[in-house]
Write a structure and sequence with these properties.
heterodimer, A: 274 residues, alpha+beta, 2 domains, 7 strands, 46% helix, elongated, B: 174 residues, alpha/beta, Rossmann fold, 7-stranded mixed beta sheet, globular
Chain lengths: 274, 174
Amino acid sequence: MALKGNLRDFTITQLLNLVNLAQKTGSLVIEGPSEVATITFREGKLAYARLNSEDGGLGAILHKSNVISAAQYGTLKTRAATMNDKELGLLLINSGYVTQDDILASLQSHFVDIIQKLFSWVEGMFHFDGDSNVPADKIPVRLDLENIIIEGSRRMREWEQLKDELPNLDLALKFTDRPGVNLKNINLSVEEWKVVSFINPKNSIAQIAKANKMSELDVRRIVYGLLQAGLVELVRVQGLDHSSLPGIDKAMPGKSKEEQKNLVNRLIGRIRSL
Amino acid sequence: MQTVKMVVTGPFNSGKTEFIQTVSEIDVVSTERKITSEAEKIKESTTVAMDFGRITVDDELVLYLFGTPGQKRFDFMWEILSEGMLGFIVMVDSTRPETFKEARAILETFRAYAPTPYVVAANKQDLEDAWDLDDMRIALRLDPDVKLLPAISVDRESVKTVLLELLTSILEEL
């Protein structure tokens, strides 16, 4: 029977577990909310991974891993544009710029990052193609899936917990009025500063994540930390009309403000008399 | 006949059904079932769809009180019940800090469903191991301007106070 379905019914963890236990060879294609991932396995081991929205070329991966500099990456893009990954890898090794271990470690790290990203996908169609293999011009790796599954499960638990703590990303943040607290004296990471720089009652958390190109998991993790430290608090987004909460008008449709007040006063009188 | 509704929500076993029963003029229409989960067997039965109480104001106005199911697996009912509500009350069991996180999540969910006034009722304040309100405010991460009220859901005066505080908040928003 064809291995296909929806992530709602069969999670990434379950899929990887199945591939691992059945020692499958082939490619798992997952169509997520905004992009498509292709993960290729050989006898139950991870061999290759690619997100269609990212540059999956060796040059980009080595640059991302800080193995080559931005300038070197720029040069490669122009001078070695026609080379495939295997040719480029050989050239870089023979030129002494990188070692074989550098390349393999960078590829492994990049592929694992892609799979970890998939753990936050809860919606999307998937299918497994047993005839598909690693593209001939790409360098395959051979990675056991057990550790990836364990790490992914841990992230999923964290994801669930953070979603419970911070279910609504449409709220905004504002700094708490705590005298004596100076942000400059607090050690924040680069990612945390990126979020802090956008904190404003006019920006929703979802907008902050989008501006910083952060995943929901990452922004939730950072905001949760800031909330726990008492540095920020959740507020409704300003700029929307909160002079009268729109839900009240919906509860008393067709009533003028005076009629609404009269109705609430009657309710108050009745409750008092109980 | 004009009808308005308010919703009483909160985690499992926080006292929502009792709260409504205490002031409703009719026997609460309760959709309760025997508890089957071992983990949740701290009471015999629980609300699975909603509780429904009524307070007649006059010939032309009736207030309905809807209680939400507390167990997370019935949360699909929440959005339906929140539709057109005048305001909502989040009940929190002051003696069970392990439910505070869930209470906070429920509060945020209802705020997202409908922007209406709300109050938080710290229920079971008559019990010896109830948390202090100041500590609960911190644990629940409530802004200073959010009303956190001491409550005893089986005490009519206490329930009236909570309802009146919510109605006052609604009046202030108009």
